[in-house]
Amino acid sequence: MSAWNSDDLSTIGDATEIRIAPRNRDGALRRPTTIWVVRNGDDLYVRSANGPEGHWYRAAESTHRGRIEAAGLARDVSFVNTTDPVVNDEIDAAYLAKYGSTPWAEPMTRPGPRGTTLRVLPATAEA
After folding, report:
1. What InterPro entries does UniProt report for this protein, alphabetically (predicted)?
2. Where are the domains of the chain?
3. Which distant-in-sequence residues (6+ apart) come within 8 Å of 113 by Cβ?
């Protein structure tokens, strides 16, 4: 069973873009950044297009907490690093399926962005 309810999973997973605002160490939200999100089964994943140097990614990596907004829905979330190569292959395929009509989809499957794969969970869910 997914940690997301089905409505939130569909709303966020179907959104072309989301806004992500990681929390700073003091708990304050950083300025939101617009990014892509993909769904893999009942899970949501994000990657940094700028690899590990992406500002939002470094903040998310530091605290593993934040907020996302999609299609008028806002949710506090936690971020879990995903390094499993099988899952990352599935996320590559999800990016190409969802965004493959753009020139930016293939770069999201390269080592830099791939190394920043984060599973996004509701803040109250267990990783």
Report:
1. UCP028498
2. 6-122
3. 47, 48, 49, 50, 51, 107
Q: Which of 123, 47, 33 lies closest to 92, judged by CA?
A: 47
Rounded Cα distance between 121 and 72, Å, is 18
Residue type, 93: A
Sheet (strand 18-22) strand order:
33-35, 18-22, 65-70, 73-81, 118-122, 43-46, 38-40
Residue 41 near residue 65, CB atoms below 8 Å: no
For the domain made up of 6-122, give the CATH fold.
Pnp Oxidase; Chain A (2.30.110)
Q: Which of 8, 126, 29, 10 is nearest to 75 (CA)?
A: 8
Alpha-carbon distance of 66 to 46, in angstroms, equals 13
Question: Quick check: pTM over 0.70?
Answer: yes
How big is the CA angle at 89 (ends 83 and 94), to the nearest 5 degrees? 115
The DSSP element (H or E) to which 46 belongs, if any, is strand 43-46
Beta bridge mates, 77: 66, 122
